[in-house]
């Protein structure tokens, strides 16, 4: 019996060896595949947990960023109002002086300067804080993942205080003075009696924007870091110096320049919309006869001629929104095409001054232009994408 078994094993030895190898290899491969599957699942779980954790941290950074922007936006608006104040001009106009025409010319320059400064300064502030807070958030997230403590509270305060140069030092002042020089170049020669439509205002703002952007040394788009940040880092911390340099590089990048240029263009569109709304409210004071005549003739309507605007200038400038608060014939707006209306520049100045006469105020109704600008820039998709890219870069570096 034993010899038969030995003989059987001898005859089929190769088959047993091959079968053993196949069975053993299959078991080994199965265990190896199972181990690799477990490792893959663990890796996927870690990556999912890291993405979720990073997403929550990014969302928290975004909320903080929005709060900081709106908080510092109030200070920025007050700085613009101080730099482009019309209080002294208004007080002189109330006294009905002999040089009233000169005062109106000064008022024209200040009104357009303040509006353009709001448009540029709001965009620059939002972009700078998006970059700063997301860069800082990326560093903090890396500290959390590596269990280090490179970013201290003191370093946070020193880094975020760099933007104070823009608001409390020379940033806003330099920006407003440069914009004023370009406003004078574009608008100085325009007489107060010139009749303008909304399309004319859009072209005027476009010309002003092109003039402001033309100087490559002082262009607020491509040279925004010149206004936003101090020329040198006041601290001697190597890490803060590194973050300062990285911030400058980001603010001077093509992405940031493109976002700022897009925001500025959209800001002037918002300004035109605000002017159109005020003009529409002013049209409600027209007599029904003039409305009917306008509807029949389909010709651009001219009203508020400069002669009366000059004689009553101080009264209109005392309260720029007087002509926009009382609706005596609200149905007139439905009969007039606001794009066909012509208004003397002397009458547009109180409107432009009125929509920029107050700073950021989220509770004001209707919402004034500075509040509209900051709110729009905060939620603008391009600005949010810029911040997300900065966070992604520095949180995974």
Blueprint of the fold:
Layout: H1 2-11, H2 13-83, H3 87-94, H4 100-146, H5 153-160, H6 164-168, H7 171-187, E1 195-196, H8 198-214, H9 224-228, H10 238-251, H11 254-283, H12 288-297, E2 301-303, H13 306-311, H14 313-318, E3 341-344, H15 345-355, H16 369-379, H17 381-395
Parallel strand pairs: 2-3
Antiparallel strand pairs: 1-3
SS field, number of helical segments = 17
What general form does the structure show? elongated
Helix-residue proportion: over 70%
Radius of gyration based on Cα positions = 33 Å
Give the overall average pLDDT.
Answer: 82
Largest beta sheet: what is the strand line-up?
A: 1-3-2
Helix-strand topology string: HHHHHHHEHHHHHEHHEHHH
Portion of residues in beta strands equals: under 5%
* Strand element count: 3
Q: Tell me about the largest β-sheet.
A: 3 strands, mixed
Structural class based on helices, strands and sheet pairing: mainly alpha
Distance between the termini: 74 Å
Unreliable spans are 289-335
For this entry, what is the oligomeric state of its chains? single chain
């Amino acid at each position: 019996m034993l010899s038969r078994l030995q003989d059987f094993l001898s005859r089929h030895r190769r088959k047993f060896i091959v079968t053993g190898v196949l069975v053993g290899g299959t078991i080994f491969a199965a265990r190896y595949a199972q181990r690799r599957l477990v490792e893959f699942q663990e890796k996927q779980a870690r990556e999912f947990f890291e993405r979720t954790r990073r997403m929550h941290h990014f969302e928290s950074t975004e909320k903080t960023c929005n709060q900081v922007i709106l908080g510092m936006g109030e200070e920025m608006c007050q700085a613009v109002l101080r730099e482009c104040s019309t209080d002294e001009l208004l007080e002189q106009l109330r006294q009905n002086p002999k040089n009233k025409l000169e005062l109106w010319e000064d008022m024209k320059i200040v009104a357009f300067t303040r509006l353009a400064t709001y448009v540029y300064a709001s965009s620059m502030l939002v972009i700078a804080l998006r970059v700063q807070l997301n860069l800082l958030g990326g560093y903090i997230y890396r500290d959390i993942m590596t269990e280090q403590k490179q970013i201290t509270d003191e370093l946070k305060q020193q880094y975020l205080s760099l933007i104070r140069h823009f608001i409390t030092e020379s940033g806003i002042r330099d920006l407003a003075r440069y914009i004023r020089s370009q406003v004078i170049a574009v608008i100085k020669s325009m007489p107060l009696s010139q009749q303008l439509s909304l399309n004319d205002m859009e072209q005027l703002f476009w010309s002003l924007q092109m003039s402001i952007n033309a100087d490559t040394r002082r262009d607020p788009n491509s040279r925004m870091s010149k206004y936003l940040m101090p020329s040198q880092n006041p601290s001697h911390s190597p890490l803060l110096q590194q973050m300062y340099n990285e911030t400058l590089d980001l603010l001077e990048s093509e992405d940031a320049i493109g976002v700022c240029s897009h925001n500025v263009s959209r800001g002037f569109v918002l300004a035109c919309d605000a002017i159109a709304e005020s003009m529409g409210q002013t049209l409600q004071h027209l007599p029904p006869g003039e409305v009917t005549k306008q509807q029949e003739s389909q010709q651009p309507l001219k009203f508020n001629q400069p002669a009366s605007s000059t004689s009553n200038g101080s009264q209109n400038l005392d309260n720029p929104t007087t002509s926009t608060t009382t609706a005596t014939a609200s149905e007139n707006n439905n009969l007039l095409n606001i794009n066909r209306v012509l208004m003397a520049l002397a009458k547009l100045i109180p409107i432009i001054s009125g929509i920029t006469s107050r700073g950021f105020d989220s509770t004001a109704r209707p919402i004034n232009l500075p509040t509209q600008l900051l709110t729009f820039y905060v939620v603008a998709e391009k600005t949010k994408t810029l911040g997300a890219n900065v966070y992604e870069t520095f949180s995974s570096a």
